[in-house]
Amino acid sequence: MSDKVLVVTGGSRGIGAAVCRLAAARGYGVVVNYAGNVAAAEAVCAEIHSRGGEAVAVRGDVSSAEDVEHIFRAADRLGRLAGLVNNAGTIAPSSRVDAMDAERIARLFAVNVTGSMLCAGAAVRRMSTKHGGAGGGIVNVSSAAAKLGAPGVYVDYAASKGAIDTFTVGLALEVAAEGIRVNGVRPGVIDTDFHATGGVPDRAQQLAPSVPLARAGTAEEVANAILWLLSDDAAYVTGTTLAVTGGRAAAP
After folding, report:
1. Is 182's pLDDT higher than 50?
2. Coiled-coil segments, which residues (predicted)?
3. How far is CA 204 from CA 193, 197, 198, in A?
């Protein structure tokens, strides 16, 4: 059994997969959570295993309380929970707010907000010294959209990530005295396949010229920030959301 286990929601692709690979390289046993693409999750695990690491793929919809408990029971079997990366998220095709329906908004908030809170609750019950745990870290994956608003494109997604920013601060203060640090990362224009879900697969390339560093970021660069926040190097950092945006601050 591992002496430090990390649960990564949405770990089968993009930023989540990069976090899983890097965490395993740094000695974590990794729970690679996925919602539907078992082949992708198993491929991440196979890569980790080939390098001598420990990982398990666990299916689960983070918006379901029952599924969340299933995910964390798998973590319990792997060893002592030391961290959670709330990375699972969804996006819908580009739309103005006046064209959005209730079902779209409800599903997006169920995954992006409710899912993060349910997973955080399960992690706190295991890591908090109040519950007999040994402490740990939580990193919530937000988005630059939370600050930019994403007008005409993804206002609902941006609003859900704004909620994550507020949740990060509130939870950090709630559990600070219980051995748990809670932080966030706010990725900007990152070159992953996430934008394809929103119907604009080349969005990162479209926006790259607007980035002061003149390029899109990589999933690995975001993963490096997340692992730093989980590490002892960030031992005095909590309630903070780190922008990984290449300096981009203009509206999309």
Report:
1. yes
2. none
3. 9, 13, 12
Instruction: Give CA–CA dist 19/226, Å, rounded.
Output: 7
DSSP assigned state of 202 = T
Backbone angles phi, psi at 75, to 5 degrees: -65, -40
What is the rounded distance in angstroms from the CA atom of residue 155 to the CA atom of residue 119? Answer: 24
The tokens for 85 are 């990366």
Give the pLDDT score at 250: 47
Record the pTM. 0.94
Backbone φ and ψ for 15, nearest 5 degrees, come out as -60, -40
28 noted as active-site residue: no
d(CA 118, CA 111): 10
Average pLDDT for the chain:
94
Alpha helices by DSSP H, listed for the chain, are 14-25, 38-50, 65-78, 102-109, 115-127, 145-148, 155-175, 194-197, 203-207, 219-230
User: Which pLDDT belongs to residue 225?
Assistant: 98
Task: Tell me the domains of the chain and their CATH numbers.
Answer: 2-244 (3.40.50.720)
Contact indicator for 32, 8 with CB cutoff of 8 Å: yes
Instruction: Transcribe 65-95 into DSSP letters.
Output: HHHHHHHHHHHHHHEEEEEEEE--------B
Residue 252: per-residue pLDDT: 39
Query: Which residue is catalytic, options 28, 34, 154, 157?
Result: 157
pLDDT (mean) for 71-77: 98
Per-residue confidence band for 197, with pLDDT thresholds at 50, 70 and 90: low
Number of other residues whose CB lies within 10 A of the CB of residue 69: 13
* Beta pairing class for 180-187 and 241-244: parallel
